[in-house]
Prior knowledge:
Blueprint: H1 12-20, H2 34-41, H3 45-65, H4 75-85, E1 88-89, H5 94-99, E2 104-105, E3 109-114, H6 120-130, E4 143-148, H7 155-170, H8 176-184, H9 187-192, E5 194-198, H10 202-218, E6 222-228, H11 241-261, E7 265-270, E8 272-277, E9 280-285, H12 288-291, E10 297-304, E11 307-314, E12 321-328, E13 331-334, H13 349-354
Parallel strand pairs: 3-7, 3-10, 4-5, 4-6, 6-7
Antiparallel strand pairs: 1-2, 8-9, 10-11, 11-12, 12-13
Amino acid sequence: MQRSVSSLCLNPSVKVKLVSAGFQFTADLLHLKPLQLSKEASLSQQEAVEVLQAVRREGGGDEAAAGGATASLTALELLQKEEEELRSVVTFSSQLDAALGGGVPLGKTTEICGAPGVGKTQLCLQLAVDVQVPQCFGGVGGQVVYIDTEGSFLLQRVIDIAAATVRHCSLLVEDDEQRVAMENFTVETILSNIFLVRCHDYAELLAELHLLPNFLSEHPKARLLVIDSVAFPFRRHFDELSQRTRLLNDLARQLISMATCYEIAVVITNQMTTRLRAGQSQLVPALGDSWGHAPTIRLLLYWVGPRRLAAIFKSPGHMDSTIQYQITSEGFRDADQSEQPQSKRPRTHTDQSAASPRVPSC
């Protein structure tokens, strides 16, 4: 027997809107996306998200048990659906983009780990600009919410990266559509599409994430959420480790939900910490093993001598791989293999530790 929409645990006014729009049973809602439901039922996008979550939580199992064939997809249909929706934010490193299957994927969470100074923030700033590349150039033409917990967001650096990206796209113009797009793709418009939030502790970060769904509903062009970094506010002020674990698990759940419901790429940076194993000190990503299951993709940036390397060490859809990159005045780029470093970067204690980090097995 099909389950009625009116039986769901929802606000009565929401139920009235659903029924008035012609949605009688939960099966009618199973294949809708938040934006589509919002328009068809005159709901806010947040209400639409809550409705679909309630359907999957309370109604999905009943529909499957009732033999609702319309709720199932074949593997081929699922593949075709994913190919239609597959979009990524390019990193401007062709090797890293290739390793990631096109770039940082929308609808998933990606964690960037690494020691201080290796380029985590530089990659985040690059992505904050790249997410705005117009669709006619192969971008997603979106906006970004950038949550800065360490005070490492540098406006002048963003301006430099934005100017280089605009110049790069201007050299690729081939048709009228691209010429028109370049009229609105300027350094000024790029800066106006970066929504910056400064959080000083974990309470401010959790409060911001609680309010973020409303913001994303009001800004449907948002395609990227950056948190730089998630580790910093959670590495102090906790007397009980269990409390921190509970808060991190809830945060992970929120990020995964937002990535899926709003079709945004969620990028978070994480610090490294030292762990003793078999009497040896090893560098591993911070926040513990349980947090390691939260991101869909984990990317490790590290030094080997003067070289900067990026390793994909957790991804259900990509092979483990390592590429070399560099940080230039224009941003995050492929390493120039033909050039030899003019001088070695001074090796600090942190660099020496980071030269051979342990890549956790997944």
